[in-house]
Amino acid sequence: MPVDTNLMTPRARALAAAIRTIREQSGVSGRELSRRLGMSHGTISHWETGRRVPTPEDVASFLTAAGVTGREKQRLIELARDASEPNWLTVGMPGIPQQLAGAVECERSASAIVEWAPLGLPGLLQTADYARALAVASGLPASEIEQRVTLRIARREALTKRNPVELIALIGEDALKDKIGTSGVMEDQLRHLLEFSERENVTIQVVKPRIGWHPGHAGPFVLYDFPDAPPVLHFEHFSSGAFVPDADDVLAYRQAISGIRKVALGADASIKLIKGLLKGKEQ
């Protein structure tokens, strides 16, 4: 069945991920859930992959059959209600899990990703200890920290799977020098960057500070390209974020990427800089 690219929005991807996770965690097979709902097994399978977007009523029935109740049930029904909307603004702390789900599904499905990270390291390249230090510093409840760290590490599969995503990571030098966690955490993180830079699908370029204005001054962003859907921009902020597929915005940010790469160090020079920083930390 061909994919309807108009439905492959970040919300639809997040909903598909939630349906898949709930079905797996319910302990009930997809065929049994299909039987309870009186529909074909293929329908639920298509929901899980995002090839079809269920109606809010279908989601409500599915969640009841899977034993999901309360706020989580209401959240997913609301997500289904607006799943076809291309723009997605998540606001406030309750929206962060949805934003993470959308980002994870974009990473899983993307063919190419470009991330501009001026002050922190791209999520796909973070170590567990670095991610944990960030979570602790941001004041997350202890009950959520390990869940976030586990999710962060699982996201790395997008770079290591059989047909991995192509990642261009544009990183501000200050992000490499800032102390997140202990000195040991940062040493391990720098080694991790060097290790992943050896992969053919990963390009790391460092942007030095105080070089004058360039498009990166507007702030961090991520651009996802998909083989089966239009590209999407993701802007993540402290307690809110947005997914934007507007073609004019995408074109503007492609031009911004070109501008940032022009002022960035080349890949070889970037690796040399990281090795120098690591050598300095180890002394």
From TrEMBL:
- Gene Ontology MF annotations: DNA binding
**Residue ranges of domain HTH cro/C1-type in the record:** 18-73
InterPro entries, from UniProt?
Cro/C1-type_HTH, DUF5753, Lambda_DNA-bd_dom_sf
Protein name, UniProt field: XRE family transcriptional regulator
- Superkingdom of origin organism: Bacteria
